[in-house]
Amino acid sequence: MKKYKAVVTATILENELNQLRKYCDVTVTGWVKNGKLFNEDKIIEILQDTDILIASYENITKKIIKNSKKLKLIGCPRGTPVNIDVKAASAMNIPVIYTPGRNANSAAEFTIGLILAELRHIARAHHSMKIGKYLGKPVRDIYNTPHQDDVMWNIDENSPYKKFRGYELRGRTLGLIGLGNIGRRVAKFAKAFDMNIITYDPYCSKEDAKIIMVKLVSLNTLLSLADFVSIHCKVTKETIGLIGEKELSLMKSNAYIINTARASIIKQDALIKVLENKKIAGAALDVYWYEPIPSNHPLLNMENVTFTPHIAGASDDVPTYQSKMIVEDVIRWIKGKELKRVFKV
Q1: Quick one: fold of 4-102+317-334?
Q2: Which residues are catalytic?
Q3: Where does the pLDDT of residue 94 fall: very low under 50, low under 70, confident under 90, or very high at 90 and above?
Q4: CATH 3.40.50.720 domain span(s) along the chain
Q5: DSSP assignment, residue 301?
Q6: What is the CATH number of domain 104-132+157-307?
Q7: Whether pLDDT at 229 is above 90
Q8: CB-based contacts of 323: which residues, under 8 Å, 6+ apart?
Q9: Is residue 155 scored above 80 in pLDDT?
Q10: Which residues contact 191 (CB under 8 A, 6 or more apart)?
């Protein structure tokens, strides 16, 4: 069997690279090797004698695709190949394979974590103790302090027991905007907390929703009923700015909004306004309109927001999933078999 030439600039684990090397001469370069993204001309230069490209973050433009005459297959080990000009590739009859759901479990677990962190003030309580609040006086010997049968914090008006009081998830309503790979997993996890699940997804059929055991509702109904609104849809022309001032005004005053998808789905000024005015209880955000978020951003001064730096999908398990998925499909292509995960425009 002919050995193809493959260029890899994405994170592919060594075990899967070795599988690929059985069929290809593999060159690992670019971002994954030196942490820097190549420009168009450099990528074109590298791809002159390349059959297969696997890239995560390099911007593979129409110019690159048109000038890489031997290129026959592009792999993108991400949930959506946003860095690939798929239309240009399709015009050149080059399939673009990707790894849908590779970080779905990671992001879904993280979403539940954000809900709990915001609702039960976990991050704020942790921070308060780290900076010295609610602590007792120093003792000479921490291993020889008087025994107490009923160990508890102070219970006066400034008690953390009152300051950080939240409520349980059981019986509350979770509203999912988007019911793809991540949304479905969030629904599954939320059921373990005895939550009620409603969802807005115009592309989900009633039959499919019934199988997943969630209730399909309109966006306005979801926003008005949910105790937690969690965003799990892709960025499209229809979803950019989907949640604005009007939509946020429908939410209950004790409700929370959680976003581990993309910031552009929520209008920035509208979210700032409702949080500043305490029109909703709070927010938990892992994504922002520009990253890193500027240090003077008004959200950072709000006590009713939990922040994380775009890490919902950053588990050590994700590289394993994406490596297996993308290499499996590359080998299927080499063997002339039907591809499992081709991105369609």
Answers
A1: Rossmann fold (3.40.50)
A2: 262, 291, 310
A3: very high
A4: 4-102+317-334, 104-132+157-307
A5: G
A6: 3.40.50.720
A7: yes
A8: 11, 12, 13, 15, 16, 17, 77
A9: no
A10: 197, 213
